[in-house]
Amino acid sequence: MNASFDNFAALWQTISARAMANGGSLYGAPREIGGCSARDAVWTKDKAVLYRYLPLPGVRSARVRPVLICYALVNRPDVLDLRPGRSMVQGLLAHGLEVYLLDWGRPDPADRSLELADYMERYLDGAVQHLLEARRLRSLNLLGVCQGGTFSLCYCALHPGHVANLVTMVTPVDFQTPEDLLSKWARGLDTEAIRQSGNLPGMALTGMFLSLRPFRLLLQKYVGLLEQSRDTEALDTFLRMEQWIFDSPDQAANALAQFIRWFYQENRLVRDTLEINGRRVALGKIRQPVLNIYAGRDHIVPAAASTALGQHLRTSDYREVQVDTGHIGIYVSRDSQHSVAATIASWLLERS
Amino acid sequence: MNAFAADMQRWVDLLTKLTHTDPASPAFHPMLQSLRESFASQLEVWLRSMHPFAAYFAVPPQPSTQFAPHGDGVGPRADSSRAASLLSDWIRLQSQLAVHWTTIARTAAETFMARTCELTASGKLPDAQKLFAVWIDCAEEAYSRTAHSQTFARLVSDFINTAVAIQLQGRRVRTRPKKIRGKPRVRGKRRR
To answer: A27, A65, A101, B97: which one has the fewest Cβ atoms less than 10 Å from its Cβ?
Structure first.
């Protein structure tokens, strides 16, 4: 019998007290965790900021095109740089890659009318254009994560000349696969009412994500913590994850309504009916090399939702890599940090 | 957080008591039966109060404050009628959700019973923490079966749509009195 499990309540109080003393929060108002790697802001547009991560000391440049990370709107990108040893960004830097990250910022009521086209054509394209000009390049490597991967696919189809190689991670492509619970719940939503009601609070979205597996994510997780409660590093990782989970930014009303309707309800990306700013987004136009990394145990973006990409591309250079983990584990688990970063780096090096 | 810890402690105590009881003793099966009932009811309560989306979207505005005509009482009757209809929808959806929570809780408890009996028969009854993991598996399986059903998916959408509509209606009512009353008109030139 595990003694700590026997005395759950007492231990829970101890952990909570320690969390509070450390400035962390298990249920209270979250603080932004930021990242653990040194970075400079090199471009801004409205609330969007393009960051350049500083190279790690002693690491030689891999001499490949810069990698621009395009993250999702629905969470903060800090999870990619959670803490030393649990940072996808540091994994990429350790392979000598030049890493940039586009941070969309936190929408406020003034942003309620933003459209998906604004995110893709104003902010993502703005960041790409800035990078290309600053580095005097014709194209770069784009790494899209989750919803950011969907945006990256759209961007690549709309601006094929700007992207040399495309990497997608846990990216939904087919939004109506049978295992996709989020999709089933989203299909009957009244997107016009969502648009009218203003920005959706981040907590509502967090609630939806937690609802997909409530017992694992709200009960078992904390019991699992008992096994790590005396491991300071594990506890720190846990608290940072907690802060990140409960720190979803509000969602710009119009863009969210468009995303739900166009992707979840109408599945336009795979039906070849998606238009951004009046221009058709055809996955078949993507001719660049594509590396598609997905998680085998992903409950938010099921594997089939990601692997559908292979059926819609016309590139002759397409590779799929399955990682045996879940949607979040792919960025933060120690193993996948090394293996996924190494896979991306070697794939890009082969195509440099 | 304290409430969570106390709830968890109750679960842990129940599991611990079971694992400390000899499966061959006459007390074991009645204890398992009572655990089933207690687990089912605790799970149902947890789903009603803690289910994340239900908890977020389930707080309707108070009809007496948000939907009543404001100020001079000239609020349109249509608003009250619409508000009443939305609230009635919301209550109906809540009760439909409650039926699903009951089903999930009962199914989870039944499955847990069956698995615990299997483990006992094979002489592999694990410690309380592992038994808790079995319980979570049973709960997730039962939840997943319901959550993926078309009926439940429709219910989730209806629930959220109604909550959003209530929010919009509340906002409409709050802003209407200004329109009805209008701003005092100033005739002639404005003073500077």
So the answer is: A27
Strand partners, A276: A279
Q: How far is A72 from chain B (nearest CA, A)?
A: 21
Q: What is the pLDDT of residues B44-78, one digit of tens each?
A: 888 887 777 776 776 555 544 454 444 444 456 67
**Rg (chain B; Cα; Å):** 26
How far, CA to CA in Å, does A140 sit from each of A67, A100, A121, B54? 7, 11, 16, 44
Angle, helix A8-21 to helix A221-228, in steps of 10 degrees: 80
In this prediction, residues A151-164 reach a mean pLDDT of 97
Let me know if B131 is exposed, middle or buried by CB neighbors in 10 A (0-12, 13-18, 19+). buried
User: Kind of pairing, strands A163-169 and A81-83?
Assistant: unpaired
The 10 Å CB-count burial string (b at 16+, else e) for A104-119 is: bbebeeebbebbbbbb
What is the identity of the amino acid at B16?
A: T
**Residue whose C-alpha is closest to residue A91's, from A326, A293, A321, A344:** A344
Q: How far is CA A50 from CA A7, A45, A122, A131, B107, in A?
A: 47, 9, 13, 9, 50
Q: Which of B86, B164, B167, B169 to mutate to test the interface with A (most CBs of A within 10 A)?
A: B164
CB contact (8 A) between residue A207 and residue B16: no
DSSP string, B122-141: TT----HHHHHHHHHHHHHH
- The number of angstroms, rounded, from the C-alpha of B82 to the middle of its chain's C-alpha atoms is 24
**Per the confidence metrics, is the pTM higher than 0.80?**
yes
Q: Which residue of B has its CA nearest to A177?
A: B148
DSSP letter for A69, please. Answer: E
Question: Angle CA(A299)–CA(B126)–CA(A335) in degrees, nearest 5?
Answer: 40
Helix (H, G, I), strand (E, B) or coil at A140: strand
Q: What angle do CA A329, B148, B3 make, to 5 degrees?
A: 65
How does residue A268 score in pLDDT terms, banded at 50, 70 and 90? very high
Contact A190 B129 (CB under 8 A): no
Q: Single out the residue of A10, A15, A23, A13 nearest to residue A243, CA to CA.
A: A23
Q: How far apart are CA A258 and CA B130, in angstroms?
A: 44
Which of A195-199, B23-27, B63-67 is least confident?
B63-67
Q: Is B82 at the interface with chain A, CB within 8 A?
A: no
The helix/strand/coil state of A83 is strand
